Amino acid sequence: MLSGRPVLSVGEDQNIIFANPAAEELTGFQNRELVGRSWRMIFDQPSILRVEAMIDILSNNTGQQGRQELQLKVTRKTGRFVTTNLTVSVLASLNKKLWLFDLEDLSPILDLQREKELLQEEMGRVSKLADIGRLTGGIAHELNNPLAILQGLTENLIDQAEHGELNSKIALRELKPMEETITRMTRIIQSMMSVARGEEPVMEALPVAELWDRAVLGFQAMNQLKNVTIKSEIDAHHLVTVDSIRIEQIFVNLVKNSLHALEEVPPGHREIRVSSQETNDRILVRFENNGPPIPPRVADSIFTPFFTTKPVGEGMGLGLFLSYNVMKAHGGSLSHENIKPTGVRFILNFPKKRRTFNRTKHRILIVDDEVLFRQMFARKLETMGFVVTMARTGDEALAAFGSGKDYDLLITDLRMPIKDGTHLVEAIRKISSIPIIFVTGYGREGALQRLLDKGIVQGIVQKPFQDEDLVVSVESALKTTISKAG
Predict the structure, then answer these.
(1) 107 near 82, Cβ under 8 Å?
(2) How many CB atoms lie within 10 A of CB 150?
(3) Number of C-alpha atoms within 13 angstroms, CB side, residue 49?
(4) Which end of the chain is more exposed for a tag (fewer CB within 10 A), N or C?
(5) Which residues share a beta bridge with 98?
(6) DSSP element (H, E) containing 433
């Protein structure tokens, strides 16, 4: 069974009494050089100490048999070390203890491990080179548009100068967009380098309309939209919190792709439509063109790197890939769909930044008899920017009102011992016009709905609730003006 493995037999005097051919091959010693000598001759010093400890353990074992396993180093005749796995077994023979040293050469396994580590290092280097390539390609792609604008504007200036048509008014007309384009190129490089360094982008709340105006400026300066009808239906009040230069580049990429698609549409019939829509938690920006639809066979590939339907030399296939990842980094998404009778719509889905409230202006009193729910509720509101006071019962809530503190909103549970939510509301309405929200797990019962319809309470939040539902209810209640009752 062990003929293929290096095996040594060791006597009670700790000397080797037999070594098989595999052991000779492993150690580099012949059998006659090993027999009669201590087993210690083939191990380095740290390994010797470990084997001695292992033999002591086995010697003191009350049983007649036992085995221990160690990983250690064998010293070959040449002085080279070989890492091995050693299993020592104790055998009883004529009231004497014999030791069986079963050695396993781990060199092949370790060599494979080293090869794997080297391969991983090489893959790491390749990955870094790929990252550099993507960064370089991304910078080149993002700078192509403004460079083309600069080239066109420069050619205009040269042409007008050569024909004697250049004056200060014309020069300023051409130089102003050139200056803005150079500024934009600088911001593109700074933005992409900050991404490469792992820095957080600078986020600012901006109107979608302003981002659109900036993006379309270069196309207008180059007169690239002269045969295209642009329909902008962007709401001036729609704000998004973004890294502006990166979102502008998405707008530019989508317009550029639309212009390419519209080349298949006769002049005079080409159309790009941009619109915005607000939902409870999102701002949607839609880019539509009436060019040919995206073929189903490539629909799943358009956001992958280096995919392009443009002729060789006209596109790198990075625009939509970069745009998709920028939107993802903003917590949003980029999707597409074909529209009828013909055309394509790209949808930018931006998360709406939750508004925070001034702590000095909005103080909330929470009333709930469940301590864990009360504390959880308070933490949620505090993270949203409110100053929160907690009360366990209706009587504690009334006492808080009588303490001289001013509150902007009361949030109370419906079912509570001693004084439930409805009785608390009746008492509060006699002394205060504070907005009130009921929190309940029972749904909008008839009585509750009537209180809401009559304006006695300003909101009902049903358990369990989403944070966004809570924010909407609180914000709505705080905007409410109530006539004092009683």
Answers:
(1) yes
(2) 19
(3) 2
(4) N
(5) 91
(6) none
Delimit the domains of the chain by residue range.
7-105, 118-195, 206-351, 363-478
* High-pLDDT (> 90) share of the chain, %: 14
Q: What is the pLDDT at residue 2?
A: 47
Q: Which of 100, 98, 44 is nearest to 71 (CA)?
A: 44
Out of 3.40.50.720, 3.40.50.2300, 3.30.43.10, 3.90.180.10, the CATH code matching 363-478 is: 3.40.50.2300
Q: Residue 34 has what pLDDT?
A: 92
Bond into 267 cis (ω within 30): no
Q: Give dist(CA 302, CA 280) in Å, integer.
A: 29
- Cut 0.85: pTM above it: no
What are the helix (H) ranges across 230-385? 244-261, 319-329, 371-383
Cα separation, 298 vs 125, in Å, equals 32
Q: The dihedral of CA 380, 326, 255, 175: what is its sign?
A: positive
Closest C-alpha among 206, 210, 230, 209 to residue 219: 230
Distance CA 409, CA 381 (A): 12
User: For 221, what's the count of Cα atoms within 13 Å in the CB-facing half-sphere?
Assistant: 30
| Cα separation, 395 vs 294, whole angstroms | 66
If one compares 450 and 273, the residue with the highest pLDDT of the two is 273
Of the options 3.40.50, 1.10.287, 2.60.60, 1.20.144, the CATH number for the domain spanning 118-195: 1.10.287
Instruction: State the fold for domain 7-105.
Output: Beta-Lactamase (3.30.450)
